[in-house]
Design brief:
The structure holds two protein chains of two kinds.
Chain A lengths: L1 E6 L5 E9 L4 H13 L4 E5 L3 E4 L1 H16 L3 E5 L3 H9 L7 E3 L2 H7 L1
Parallel strand pairs in A: 2-3, 2-4, 3-5, 5-6
Antiparallel strand pairs in A: 1-2
Chain B lengths: L5 E6 L10 E8 L5 H13 L6 H22 L7 E8 L3 E7 L26 H8 L2 E4 L5 E7 L2
Antiparallel strand pairs in B: 1-2, 2-3, 3-4, 4-6, 5-6
Helix pairs in contact in B: 1-2, 2-3
Classes of the chains: A alpha/beta, B alpha+beta.
């Protein structure tokens, strides 16, 4: 369970969520993205290709992160959600709130 | 390091009066760091010996995580001396999981729907809604400190 940060050639920062995004680690993700924003990063992609499951606290953390990035004039995109993970966003209507791409590559190309 | 979880699994050679052949109980402390391990443990025992689909596994993991987190954070207010009790009754066609905390309970009927447009931007309030959407039936005890979630096996 953890988060891995990388940067592509165009300067987009990608954060990969490995394992679960739940109440026990959502604060860590919020702090990581806040630190990225504080150092001037404005294009952030969160990749869920290696994520098992997300609970409502994890979804809530993504809502907070998205709001914060928008307030700072940045863009947040999500990618790599499998069918089950995507269903959580659809059930909660959060698919209407986030820019969600099928793959990290598609998300990177859309910035 | 010794696990703070206390697991008990009782497998009967024949189903009991209600038809459950296996009973899994887990007691865990009010520590959110224990949730992931408890979820994996209960999920593994609930699905052992059955051909579970990935969707069933996913649903079970999410609702267990939600219910245990609610019990620790909202029920027990993360008080060190209080525990959360998970009891899974395993039937041939159904998994029934109870998650009980030592708090005062709450009234589930007054929890607002989180999918209204004015609620979408809120960080919290989706846990119970997700549980209701992912399982086949949800019941609470009268006090409101114990949730019973029923999943049909595919």
């Amino acid at each position: 369970m953890g988060f891995t940060e990388s940067r592509d050639a165009t300067g987009v920062v990608m954060v990969q969520v490995e394992g679960q995004l739940i109440v026990g680690n959502r604060q860590e993700l919020k702090e990581l993205v806040q630190a990225l924003a504080d150092r001037g990063e404005r294009r952030i992609l969160i990749d869920f290709s290696r994520t098992g499951y997300i609970d409502s606290s994890g979804l809530g953390a993504l809502v907070s992160i998205s709001k914060r990035i928008r307030e700072m004039g940045g863009e947040l995109r999500l990618a790599g959600l499998n069918e089950d993970l995507r269903s959580l966003f659809e059930l909660t209507k959060l698919d209407t709130l986030f820019a969600i791409a099928e793959t990290p590559q598609q998300a990177l190309a859309s910035f | 390091m010794t696990s703070p979880l206390r697991l008990c699994v009782r497998r009967s050679p024949a189903p009991d009066a209600e038809g459950a052949a296996t009973l899994v109980t887990v007691r865990l402390p009010s520590d959110i760091a224990c949730i992931e391990e408890a979820v994996e443990l209960v999920t593994r025992h609930c699905l052992a010996g059955h051909q579970a689909t990935p969707k069933t596994r996913f649903r079970l993991q999410v609702v267990l995580s939600e219910a245990i987190a609610n019990a620790i954070v909202r029920g027990n207010h993360e008080e060190v001396g209080k525990c959360v009790y998970v009891r899974a009754e395993l039937f041939t066609d159904v998994i029934r999981v109870y998650v009980t905390d030592e708090g005062c309970g709450f009234d589930p009927s007054v929890v607002p729907e989180p999918i209204r447009p004015e609620q979408l931007d809120e960080a919290g309030g989706r846990g119970l809604y997700l549980i209701r959407k992912l399982v086949d039936a949800v019941q609470f005890n009268e006090q409101g400190n114990s949730i019973c979630m029923t999943l049909r096996r595919p």
